Write the structure tokens for this entry.
Amino acid sequence: MKIIYAVTALSAALMASAASAQGVNLSGRWDCIAMCLAPPGNPAFITQNGWQLNALNEAGMPSRGWIDYPGHLWLEQAHVGALIAPDGDTLQFDNGTIWQRAPELPPPPPPLPPRYRKS
């Protein structure tokens, strides 16, 4: 009976870990706020597909990566890992660089309809 409880608890923990890793969507624009490779104002981008990542840092260098365990990612070409904040809005890299999710801007207003003159 103890074995059944242990197996049930272990499988529940593994499912929760996988769900929490999948629950954070890192796709989008990021702003470097500390230890940046490029001048301020250059954005970084991440595209996520499941556990796989494609990243473009603020200096324009691409890197493939993955979420190696919940709360941590690895970027292969950059040879750097990062801690993912629980809310998914901050990445703290091993080399001291910090990225923060860029705020999403509202869409532009629709264009005004053309005005016609009476002749």
Q: What stands out?
A: Residues 2-101 form a domain with the Lipocalin fold (CATH 2.40.128). The chain has one domain: 2-101. DSSP finds one helix and eight strands in the chain.
